[in-house]
Amino acid sequence: MQAQLIPFIISGDARAQAAFYIEAVGGEIHALSTFGDAPGTPESSKDKVMHLSMTLAGGNTLIMSDAFQDAELSANMGLSLSFDDEEAARTAYRNLSAGGVEKYPFALQPWGNFYYGELVDRFGMTWQLVKQG
Questions:
Q1: pLDDT digits (tens, 9 = 90+) for 43-59
Q2: Where does the sequence pass through the membrane (predicted)?
């Protein structure tokens, strides 16, 4: 059996979060449907994102939807991007950290021949960015 793991984010604002990620690392939205597409949806929820599918940073799939209540983020979960180009990794780190918190600056690490940086973006998502040295 073979399966593909695709991250799914329940967001406080899926449209804004997706737009931020596309601007930060490149990508595009492939599908977007709202709860208004489903029959019987209350007027107050019709514009909420039911399903948003996108590719980021050269083809990585990410799926999102809007939360109906405050989205609770977990420090136990995050996203990791591995780059083959140091400047692209540095740019992604800088872009994703805008308005967020830099936890570990993107730098060559003493414990191995690779670059690593960690941040929490303005939507509360933890990112780890890596470039093999």
A1: 888 999 999 999 999 89
A2: none
Domain ranges of the chain: 8-66, 78-131
Q: 54 φ, ψ to 5°?
A: -145, 160
Residue 64 region, left (φ>0) first, then alpha (ψ -120 to 50), else beta? Answer: beta
Task: Give me the pLDDT at residue 71, please.
Answer: 66
Distances (CA, A) of 65 to 28, 41, 50, 51, 94: 16, 15, 5, 5, 25
What pTM, to 2 d.p., does this model score?
0.91
CATH number for the segment(s) 78-131: 3.10.180.10
